[in-house]
Specification:
It is built from three helices and eight strands. By secondary structure, the chain is an alpha+beta fold. The protein starts with 12 loop residues before the first helix and ends with a strand.
């Protein structure tokens, strides 16, 4: 009878080092692609928000037209007893799913107004909660409203000054022009 010794099975140190090196190279190659996916996701969120605002604005204008307030902006105290005039807030409104959405010239008043009711109702109607989106001013856009995803909250000052672009700008219309919604995704 002869007994043969089997060599121990397993990986040698050299094989383990080679596997670690291969994994390191793969992670170096894959990491930029993963980071790019993250920036594309942020850009997609910004574009989706801009599309939502544009769609809601068109609906608001249609409802304003039905209520015959599409050409009206603020007025005096009672506004001729117009049923769509909110005396305490001092703005025209339309009903948007049970919430008063305040409008001027048929379009929603930007959520950066002096009225907390106007701002809160805009956030409610558009589904823009405070944990997901910050609202600030866009000074380089004629002081329009910038709606900023929470992931860019550390860039609010740069956004206000036009130095960082990963947000939506909403400009409520004055009599001289229509509203505008612009998605900026260059820095997402």
């Amino acid at each position: 009878m002869s007994f043969k010794c089997k060599p121990p099975s397993g990986f040698t140190l050299i094989e383990l080092v080679i596997v670690i090196i291969i994994l390191a190279v793969l992670s170096i190659v894959a990491m930029p692609k993963m980071l790019n996916i993250s920036s594309e996701a942020k850009a997609a969120d910004v574009r989706a928000l801009a599309a939502l605002i544009s769609t809601q604005n068109r609906l608001a204008f249609a409802k304003s037209s039905l209520a015959n307030i599409e050409a009206l902006e603020g007025c005096s105290y009672q506004c001729g007893n117009n049923p769509n005039w909110d005396v305490p807030v001092g703005e025209y409104y339309i009903d948007a799913s049970g919430t008063r959405l305040y409008v001027s010239l048929g379009y929603p008043i930007a959520p950066f107004s002096s009225s907390s009711t106007v701002n809160a109702n805009y956030r409610t109607v558009f589904g823009i909660n405070e944990e997901q989106f910050f609202i600030t001013i866009a000074r380089t856009e004629n002081s329009a409203t910038a709606i900023v995803p929470a992931v860019s909250k550390d860039k609010l000052t740069e956004i206000e000054n036009g130095q960082y672009r990963c947000h939506v700008v909403y400009s409520a219309p004055p009599k001289s022009r229509r509203y505008s919604v612009t998605a900026y995704t260059e820095d997402c």
